[in-house]
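User: I'm curious whether this sequence folds into something compact or stays loose and floppy. Could you predict its structure so I can see for myself?
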Amino acid sequence: MTDEAIRVGIYVPQLQFAYGDLVTRARDCEELGFDSFWLFDHLYGAMLPDLPAFEAWTLATALLTETTRLRVGHMVLCATFRHPALLGKMATTLDVISGGRLNLGIGSGSVEREHVEAGIPWGSFAERSEILEETLEIVTRMFAGPRTTFTGRHFSVHDLPNVPAPVQDPRPPIYVGGIGERRTLPLVARFADVWNVPTYALDVLAEKSAALDRSCAAVGRDPGEIRRSLEAVVVVGADDAAVADALPAAERRFGSTGFGLRAGGYIGTPTAIADRILAHRDLGFTEFVFFCADRATRPTLELLAEGVLPRLR
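Assistant: Here's the prediction. I'll summarize afterward.
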């Protein structure tokens, strides 16, 4: 068990939303006491390519200017989309603009089709893992400043300045997600401030957490330096009948997408969800990102804020 404060965020993939609706959701999250607001980083919805979707960085910048306390990040950025020198500069700039409210989630990319259609090289999993590693190397060095030199297989920078520096000390927190023991967890151990576990892996938390500890030992890092975070699909209702009523729509949305609704989702009343979170806290997890099955409507956010958050704080 850990005494570290629990943080709770809301993940709202920006697909088929009007901009004003996203602003409303972010402001609702801020008003109701959530800690963070998360977006996806895709050119379009992978299974719904004809629906409107906003670009991730532009939208994050806008939402940070529309709020005052809420942290904003991406779950997660595709390292293949942006040269790491540009990514580091963008992240630094947004951290300054927002007064230090940026969470920086970075991954290797997950949708081949959007890369092919946009003319962005996809590469093998090994190549994308190398790109992610070099991106993390360059961005972390840029945050440390004042100048960065790095030569890799995919990217090189030479005496690159990064001024002004980020507001957050020592840097905007870097989130790396995934459970792969060969490539991902070693990167978490080397670079991440926060390890994020996706919802489909909630049944192997203890096993993967121990694997991360081993990866940290291999590089001489204290595993206690890395905050442990869970992303989970949430179906909540005021009582069992309301939960049962909400489940069919959630199953239609998530049942075939690999999000592990039944196995890994937080399904139930606010009390049941809080109990499950507290059990996960006992495994060392202290940050939770809710992917609400109903697209984070105000009534759902209120149920979570009134029935779950007080139990965690």
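Summary: The first helix runs from residue 19 to 32. The chain has a mean pLDDT of 95.
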